[in-house]
Amino acid sequence: MVGRIIIGCLLFCLNVAGQEQNTVDSVCHQDSTHTLMARLRQVQQILDARVKKKVDPAYIEVPEKPWRVIMRYKENVVDVDYFQGVDLPESNEHSDVRLCFEPPLAASVGVWVGYRGLGASISRSVARNAGRYYSISSTGAKFGFNFRLRRFRVEKARFMATDYKDGKLDGEPYDTVTNMYSPVWIRSVYVNGYYVLNGRHYSQAAAYNQSVIQRRSSGSLLLGLTWYQSSFDYSDINNYLYMIISDGIRRIKVHQANLGIGYGYNWVPLRGLVVNAMAMPTFSVYNRVKVYRYNFNYCLAEDDPVDDYGEWNRQTKTWANGKMSKPILMDEDLDLDYWDGGAETAYSAFQLNLDLRVGIAYNWKNYFVGLQGQYNNFIYKKDKTKVNLYDAYARLSFGVRL
Q: What are the backbone angles phi and psi of residue 295, rounded to the nearest 5°?
């Protein structure tokens, strides 16, 4: 009996001690949670104070609610124009050949979640055969950043040709829509950063991600740095005719670093509404064009060949008469042969490109809507080859502050 009483007392004491310990642990957990939340609030207050300190409240309002959730619909378009000049000096003839590629719009819907000017987004493409498209952007009081990548292939092209004889137009220009024998792959990467000189009175963010609200009209000079690289690839041998016309060119890769100075202006016609326009010409400080070629056993010529070329020798890479290339005749069966012609790299110090942006935003209570657009034009040349790439997007957004 005594033993049972002792065991019962021990169990009672252990149960009481356990309850006290659970109470202590619960209190400590609550204190830890409150401490963590208090520290997070302190960090948020410090960050908000820094943001507000950088701007003039008479021109730029920093909303009290820092978090934003934004629904977005975006369309991106890339057009590529490929120019090639062809000279036939013996007959004093010249031809300008142009291929224009217009892939489908890259349309997507997505959601963006962020704190002040920082955040992340996820989107889903709603267009078919538009290739792959990725973008990242951040817009703050004085700094901004954009990244865009698109890779796609196209099969249809608009083909135009103009012939000249003795410097004068020879016949009517040729213009048609054609199918490439094999798809053309085009890839572009665009990275841009900018700095706002008058960040206390002017904000790009007010029009492009609504992290702040422009209260009065103001403008600013902007400094920009852009990195751009792209490739234009139609090296499938089924496209041999276009490559022969282009003197064997099968792929072009471009790398450009550009510096620019521009101007942006925010017009505020009424409270909550801002209209932004920004233009920035950029000048390349590094411009590298790398051209890859094939060597072919055929070439362009004015007239039918007068020599007896005989048979093609694939070992020596020459015809029977010792020549490497034979004038191409459209009415004969080609004994086509090709091999790697190596790559050539050219550098140039000056190239003018253009960055244009337009943005409209309207804020009411804790909601806002926005419409933004951006246009970029990049040009690169190599000998008688020229490629223009036009890259633009339009974006519609609706968001709420939390």
A: -95, 135
Rounded Cα gap, residues 225 and 138, in angstroms: 15
Query: 175: which 2 tokens?
Result: 């213009």
Separation CA 215–CA 273 (nearest Å): 8
**Bridge pairing between strands 298-299 and 326-327:** parallel
**Helix, strand, coil content of the chain in percent (nearest 5):** 15, 60, 25
Q: Are 86 and 94 in contact (CB under 8 A)?
A: yes
Q: Are strands 67-88 and 385-401 parallel, antiparallel or unpaired?
A: antiparallel
DSSP codes joined into one string, 182-250: EEEEEEEEEEEEEEETTTTT--SHHHHT-SSEE-S-EEEEEEEEEEEEEEEE--SGGGHHHHHHTTTEE
CB-CB contact of 106 with 75 (8 Å): yes
Mark the ranges of the chain whose per-residue pLDDT is less than 50: 1-14, 16-17, 20, 23-24, 27
* Furthest C-alpha separation in the chain: 128
Distance CA 204, CA 195 (A): 10
User: Which residues lie closer than 8 Å to 396 by C-beta, 6 or more apart?
Assistant: 72, 73, 74, 369, 370, 371
Going by the DSSP 8-state scheme, the letter that residue 278 receives in this structure is: E
* Structural Rg of the chain based on CA atoms: 32
The answer to whether 164 and 93 have CB atoms below 8 angstroms apart is yes
Predicted structure pTM score: 0.76
Read off the pLDDT of residues 40-77 as tens digits, 9 standing for 90 and up.
666 666 666 666 778 899 999 999 898 999 999 999 88
- Report the Cα 40 to chain-centroid distance in Å: 36
Residue 321 structure tokens: 């008469």
Tally the C-alpha atoms within 13 A of residue 308's C-alpha that lie toward its C-beta. 1
Residue 23 burial (10 A CB sphere; 0-12, 13-18, 19+): exposed
pLDDT of residue 10: 40
The structure tokens 């004969």 sit at 332
Q: Rounded to the nearest 5 degrees, what angle is found at the Cα of 235, between the Cα atoms of 298 and 287?
A: 110
Residue 21 to residues 34, 35, 175, 205, 216: CA-CA distances in angstroms?
20, 21, 87, 52, 60
Can you tell me which residue has the tokens 């010792």?
Answer: 322
Locus of tokens 């003197």: 247
